[in-house]
Structures
1.
Amino acid sequence: MPVSLRVLNAMDRAAFVAAVGGTFEHSPWIAERTWDARPFASRDALHAALCATVATATTEEQEGLIRAHPDLVGRAARAGTLTPASTNEQAGAGLDALSADEVALFDQYNAAYRERFGFPFVICARTNKKASILAAFPVRLQHTREAEVATALAEIAEIARFRLADTVADDTTDTGAPS
């Protein structure tokens, strides 16, 4: 059950981090730093504040955020150790039902990408399917490292938007009148 934005705005720091800390993969520090920006007028305002925290983070923190993401169809996915959100996102893109050849292709692309950039390939699986993800790998492998950091952070922001929609009810249209 999503938490009400009104309730979220009233939470202490620890409860806030517990509620939205998983929005960014294994990076509760983003919610921790964003708590001070409360109250949020809408879920979009919350998303913007969280993304602003990422934008003002150090390069090392931003790259750590990217590295916190799992490889698509990687060892963690095959071992069943992904976060529930990542598991659902990869399954929604059809990445849980691949042939052995497709798994091998993902492994090859993941390895080449990680070797070139030093972090995993990140793409919003909720807006992509297997074919578009596979098509993106060779294109993005041609990017500069700076361009890929920016692309990965933009993809992470999109992932966070979907995750917030799953966890926070945007009750900004609620008048507070009893029903």
Note: Residues 174-179 have pLDDT under 50 and may be disordered.
2.
Amino acid sequence: MEDDGKDLIYLGAGPIAAVLLGMALVPVRDFTTASNFTFLFLALTIVVGEFGGRTAAVATAVASALSLDFFLTQPYMRLTIAEKHDLLAFFGLAACGLLTASLASGRGRWAAPRAPGRKQLELVHSSVAELEQGGPLEPRLVRTLDACRLSLPVAAAVVRDRANGVLATSGPGPARPVPGQALELDTLLPPGRARESLPRRGLPLPAEGGRLSLVAGKRHCGWLDVWGSGAPATTDARRSLSDVARVIAALLAEAERGR
């Protein structure tokens, strides 16, 4: 899965960066005590924890402590420590690094969904408001599609009627061929794939495009074609786009009744 692959990259890159940092500090190790270098390793652990998760951060914290010992404490180039204050610096870095790894990675996991959640709520609210405003259909659809592109990982979107005629577009959609892949309305996944199969951070919507059937009152009224921007679409983002698709179906049904 894409999310797991990204974590594995940081799992390898974090410890390597800790070793390289220790090597880079070798020219200045005689000018100060080893304890003064610990904040640099802690900063590295925080960064890895934010982007790579808890496992990568723990690995970076351990590698940082070993790098400090090997490169920056006497006797150099050995995993032994001669001075008492260097011993304290080693264990202090190891303990603080592990604590920082836990807190940093947890903060990244908890904070990530909050801001997108507010945008998605505003998107659904503005889409529902289009049902109340009345007026010509196309501007209402365009405003809804534009809001989708601003709030969700959508690069382009097109609303088509039952005969595949373009009713409204946002982004470079009409220049692209009609997507050949159908998506389930509730999950925005191909038919037969369960929502539980999504990785933690979600998968991008299809870059080649996907089709959502727009149904109102058990009657097919058109299509919503969407192209992913490449960014992951979380479960909440998919649910928001599903809700917007239902609103668009209601707008199309309303327009048909008014003819």
Note: The chain has two domains: 2-111, 122-257.
